[in-house]
Amino acid sequence: MVKVLFVCLGNICRSPMAEAVLRHKILERGLTDRIAVDSAGTGDWHIGKAPHEGTRHILDEHGISYENMKARLVSGNDFDDFDYILCMDQSNGENVRKIPGGEEAKLLFFMDLLPEEELREVPDPYFTGNFEQVYQLINAGCEVLLDQIIKDKL
Question: If you ran DSSP here, which 8-state letter would residue 51 be given?
């Protein structure tokens, strides 16, 4: 089983959106028995909460489930458990590095999946309010990521 973890700050906007989108793509391709997805945050403000209303709204618009998703913190165990750990921005990558075991973890940055994009970090819609822009970036990046996983690991 290939395991993917998306990381953002509070685990209510960007990373759960990416988790839901990638899960949806995995389901469409019939790979649910081969690829697992999760998300986590580096801040503890929203632990146990469902995704942000804006994230839920945009996922509903696109017919993508976020059922049973709850915010959680990144833990040291994640570094051993996941094959791919994708951070939504540099700041959260730095925060992950401060977790015991994180200094040696192989981290990827989501926007590296989209080198043609001018943006180098996924904007945080908690502050910008632009959930559609974030969805478009995440949807495109998850397509690239899934193709890469299939090529490299399956």
Answer: P
pTM score, whole prediction:
0.97
2-153 is a CATH 3.40.50.790 domain: no
19 contacts 12 by C-beta, under 8 angstroms: no
d(CA 80, CA 152): 19
Residue-averaged pLDDT of the chain: 97
pLDDT in the model for residue 148: 97
Catalytic residue positions, numbered? 8, 14, 124
Measured CA to CA, the distance from residue 33 to residue 63 in angstroms comes to 21
Q: What is the residue type of 87? A: C
Q: What is the rounded distance in angstroms from the CA atom of residue 66 to the CA atom of residue 64?
A: 7
How far is Cα 135 from Cα 57, in angstroms, rounded to an integer? 11
The helix (run of H) or strand (run of E) holding residue 140 is: helix 131-153
Which among 112, 142, 154 has a CA at the least distance from the CA of 39? Answer: 142
| Residues comprising the chain, all counted | 154
SS3 48: coil
CA gap 123, 133 in Å, rounded: 8
